[in-house]
Amino acid sequence: MVVHAINRVAEALRLKWESDETELSSQSCNSSKKVLCDCSFNNHTLCRVTKLDFPDMHLRGEIPPAIGNLTGLISIDLKSNRIHGNIPNSLRNLMQLQYLDLSSNDLDGPIPDFFGQMKSLNVL
């Protein structure tokens, strides 16, 4: 499910990052330093995406709802791209999120109210 979600995010934002693995490994995500994972789960056999770091990359598209399936995310930096559309409601699932930067994009609509309920979110 995590691999599917990260692939949907990459596809929606036109990133050149595709994994054909069924599970993330520390090599597949930490090698780029753009997608970081914590692979300490299940005796180091299960990885969770903790960081998406894609500022100033001329990304375009919409943030897909599948991003909400990456429940281990702590940091998302998508600032200064060409991302449009609304902030997906699925971000409410990211209860560990501490840092979110979507500034300098072409997003529409209001900032969702649920961000105020995310106690771990320090930077918005």
UniProtKB/TrEMBL annotation:
Its annotated compartments are: Membrane
- Where primarily located? membrane
Which InterPro entries does the entry mention? Leu-rich_rpt, LRR_dom_sf
Q: Which Gene3D superfamilies match?
A: Ribonuclease Inhibitor
State the superkingdom: Eukaryota
Could you tell me the membrane topology recorded for this protein? Single-pass membrane protein
The record's section on SUPFAM superfamilies has:
L domain-like
Provide the transmembrane region boundaries: none
Q: Does the keyword Transit peptide apply?
A: no
Q: Does this entry carry the keyword ATP-binding?
A: no
Write out the GO cellular component annotations. Answer: membrane
**Keywords, A to Z?**
Leucine-rich repeat, Membrane, Receptor, Repeat, Signal, Transmembrane, Transmembrane helix
The record's section on PANTHER family has:
OS07G0107800 PROTEIN-RELATED (PTHR45631)
Quote the protein name from its UniProt record.
Answer: Uncharacterized protein
Q: Which organism is it from?
A: Hibiscus trionum (Flower of an hour)
